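User: My instructor asked us to take a sequence, write out its structure as tokens, and then describe one feature of it. I'm not sure where to start. Here is the sequence I was given:
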Amino acid sequence: MLEALLVVTLIAACGAAGLAALLLVRERTMAREAREELSRALLGFSQSLSTQMGSIATVQNAQLETLRQTVEQRLARLQEENAAKLEQMRETVGEKLHATLEQRLAHSFRQVSERLELVHKGLGEMQALATGVGDLKRVLANVKTRGVLGEVQLAALLEQVLAPEQFATNVATRPGSRDRVEFAIRLPGRDGESPVWLPIDAKFPLEDYQRLQEAQEKGEPIAADAAAKALETRLRAEARTIAEKYVEPPATTDFALLYLPFEGLYAEVLRRPGLFEQLQRDHRVTVCGPTTLTALLNRLQLGLRTLAIEQRSSEVWKVLGAVKAEFGRFGEVLARTRAQLQSAANSISAAEVRTRQMARTLKGVESLADAGVREVLGPEDTPQGERSA
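Assistant: Let's start with the prediction itself. The structure tokens for your sequence are:
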């Protein structure tokens, strides 16, 4: 109260300027007091917070120690349990591995024994095969036997593709000649009676081909070139012989076929520059391998079938002409039959008219019973078919 009175007195004494100064001093005093009060509050809060943090740290340390001891105890028990389980698993796995290993070893020994038995059997078959290869080598070493082998293969191809009447064996294709070709395909002639022959001769120059293969495998170009030239010379001589002995147009075609039983041999002929064309041009001989001859025979078989169809078509056309003439006469007979049937139908129609007239005339006559009818007209005649039924 005294302070308020003092303030009022000072305000009255000092006026407005004094009042402003007093207010400024008052504000500064209050601000200082507020700062001091805030400092004291912050100091107290800091001391309280430090005390609480210390308490919390003490409690946490105690909890962490308890947790650490609990974890150590559980880890120890877990290690003991894991060690016991691992020991049990080790014993189980050891027993199973031992049993499995014994089973696998027994199975493996049994397989090895079976394989060794198969190998022994295969060695026996290989020995038999080696003996057979030796026999085959001895067979191929004989020129005559080797030629027979080529003829057998050629005969098998012809029998597979052509009909038996489309080819012949050991044919004297040239008129008046005693030379006979191994096989010849029968082609239709122009007059339709005498056939035209296509000669086919099988050749097997094995020695020259083997020398060529050996030189190529050993990498000897000079020996390979010499063997290739020897093979060319042999084929030219064979083609010349075929042309001179078996080709004679018009009794034969103007070319012949030289059959090589191996595709490798035929490929070697094609590999020689100009050899295939030269044999065709100079000697009128075409070299064929198994695949080429099969394709040529199939093409020839198709041509023969087309020609047979054309010949049959003319015969069919003649038959159709005869049928057409006979069908005209059949139409005439059918017309006469129709006229006769129409006349019979007209007669039946006239009889029906007369029957109706007679029925109208007899309409007033009294009908008799069945017994009276039989007495007057006699017994009824039964048709023969109804009696048998």
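For the description part of your assignment, you could build on this observation: The first strand starts at residue 167 and ends at 171. Try explaining in your own words what that tells you about the chain.
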